[in-house]
Amino acid sequence: MTAAAREPLACQAPSRNRRADFLAAVGLFVVVFVAHAGSLRDGLFFDDHWHRATLRALGWGFNDLVESATFDLPGELVSLWWQEQPLQWRYARPVAMLFMKIELLVTGGSPMGVHICALTWHALTTVLVYLLASWVIGRRGWGFVAAATFAFQPHCVFGVSWIAARNALVSGFFFLAAIYVYASAPVMRKEREEPLSLGRFLAVLVLWGLALFSRETAIGFPLLVLVLDWTRGGRRLFVRRLPAYVVIFLLTGAYLYWRLLVFPVAGPPSIYFTAPSGAAYLIWAASKLLHMLFALVFQTPMFLGLATYDASISSQIALYGVMLALLAGMVLWYVLTSRGLRTRWFWPIWVAAAFVPVIPVFVMPHFAYLPAAAFSVMLGVMLYGLRGWWRPAVTVLVIAGTLWSFGIYRYLWRGVLRSEQLICADIRTDTPRPRPGSKLFFLNLPVAGIYTPVALREAWELENLEGYVLTFAPHPLMMEYPCVVERVGQCELVVSVEGPGYFSGLSGRMLRDGMRPNSPLTAGTFVAGELFDTTVLEGNESGIRKLKFTFHRPLDSDDFYFYISSPERPAYRPRFDPAGGPIDRRAAKLFALARSDDADQRRRAREQIVTLTQPLAIQLGDPIQGDFRDPQLVSDESLERVQDWWRTVDASRLLDESAAWHAEHAALLRQRRHYFQIVDFATSLIRSDLFLTGDGTE
Length: 698
Prior knowledge:
This protein is of the alpha/beta class. The chain folds into 3 domains: 18-44 and 91-385, no CATH class; 417-564, no CATH class; 585-649, no CATH class. The chain is 54% helix and 9% strand. The protein is built from 23 helices and 13 strands. The chain has a 5-stranded antiparallel beta sheet with strand order 8-9-12-11-10, with no helix packed on it. The chain has a 4-stranded parallel beta sheet with strand order 2-7-6-13, with helices on one face. A hairpin with a 2-residue loop joins β11 (532-540) and β12 (543-551).
């Protein structure tokens, strides 16, 4: 794979042809809308609910827009009984929030309408990638290929489909616009240096400012301007534009002073932000940058990775070596195919510089949006620079592989969304609109559902609705293990779980350590609260297996609503005062057969009873689960207890309700299941904890 000497690369746009550029732009819009059409049905997820609430409640002023992107725990979000240290996330992104507010106003809050806005932002940015790639390569066709790879870049799935990541799209658009306007300024005219016009320079500053106040990663713009000019015109151009650099760096200094010293920021939680400290931090930062670069280039999950929360770098040194070797191979390909290109180092520096500001922050896939734009230009150069039949063959392979990864990411992302949306769907199925001031208590809530109270406030049009998490599920997306919830008296619940236990794995440790850094949760720990007190009955720092919640009012108070997440239902509402009911004719016949003198008939009937009732018991968190350890209910005493339980909870009615619920939400359940199937397959090949489950790294 070597450079094509007959067709040298040069940073100059192809001859003007507005019709060709217009057709290319239309084609890219089509590519974007076809590729991301599935996102139109994605709905809302996670931070989306909070942004909608704050944007509606606050005004149009600068401070209002800043506050609309502020998150507090505890606060109006949800209450966590173990939290001792308040947490706050603050972002200086008023421009992005302004556009989100406009989108809400224009679309009337329609999730599909807001997703159409996201596709439009992404399509506009894709057109800018086309213009930059065409400027670099000098061929519109290959500029289109480069832009198309950005249009369906797998990591863009998250940025385009997640409304809360709109800041990445808005900032990316204005950032690329600033780069394009600056780069397209002529450097020479008739052997004479061309000055940078004041109008163009002011336009660049405005575009950069819009990008910077949409997302902080645009802070890398001054460095890229220096690199771009140096690679294009060398020392002469660099000296010629010193006044422009002075202005840009003065503005950069003013922004950093305001952002770091004036802008009010409470100490960000350690679960989200790793503050620089000592020489070891440099090694950690370098390894994390390596992971993000590798994830971008080879389209692996950019969520957690090896260099992350409390990870041991030394234990993964072999994997870092593999990543470094593979990236070196890609760099060699780029070096060989970019000969003669003056700005050859500008694009890889852009990729790395766009990742540097987010190194201290918990990794999320939309962090790759801005680096992906530059990498797509690099990819266009790498493909165009191939010789002979290598060029079409490798281009087809790259596009096919990218589309394959894009499809996998769509399935993964859809499964993540559905994990949260199923929680709200389950609650709304069984709970009529509560009265203002009601309290919602969640057992085994997946972390993905932490915004459930906010989502329900909008759905029910209730401002005064409080949410309390009693336990989080060990897995961020689903409760994978049964639990037992026992009512003791009028005011007390005892909750126990097998498996890894609560606060286990990486997600559990982050939730515990970030909110309770100096007080471990061990057996005997007592935490007093306003509505209830909590006692740890069994467990240690590795996981909590049994908890007691003592409420200050009866559990069946009219304004108390309890929900249990389980492998059977994402948020089922148990009744602590079940009315019960008679056993219907079918169930009575089944229990009669379970007592038959015919041993084979008796065995089959008892197995059928277990098959029917065990999922219900798991759904309810009922202690009767202990009788199902024997799948054949050999013990007559167990059979008698199960029959009494059937009558008490009116199991016949519950079976019909559960069947109807699963049928109604079959599509959402299937899409969630696809996520776990893909992850299970991936982790069977690569032993790495990519999704905060605690598996594979310890």
